[in-house]
Specification:
By secondary structure, the chain is α+β, with helices and mostly antiparallel strands. It contains two helices and two strands, in the order ββαα.
Length: 66
């Protein structure tokens, strides 16, 4: 479980406008969400999803072969 230490910035009316979190926690969130992936990795995942949706078993390697 990830604990996020945050500071909430409010406007003059007391409404929250921004949240400040430590850089390392931000990087962990980014990685967890996959936002740190390269464009090539994103394209590979898109193609893998298409292969899965189309039941293209030739696109995959058997686990025993790894």
């Amino acid at each position: 479980m990830l604990t996020i230490h945050q500071k909430v910035v409010k406007d003059v009316n007391g409404n929250p406008t921004e949240v400040i979190i430590p850089w390392e926690e931000y990087k962990k969130i980014e990685e967890s969400l996959g936002l740190d992936l390269s464009q090539e990795a994103i394209e590979d995942l898109k193609h893998a999803k298409i292969d899965r949706d189309n039941s293209n078993k030739d696109a995959y390697i058997d686990l025993e072969s790894i």
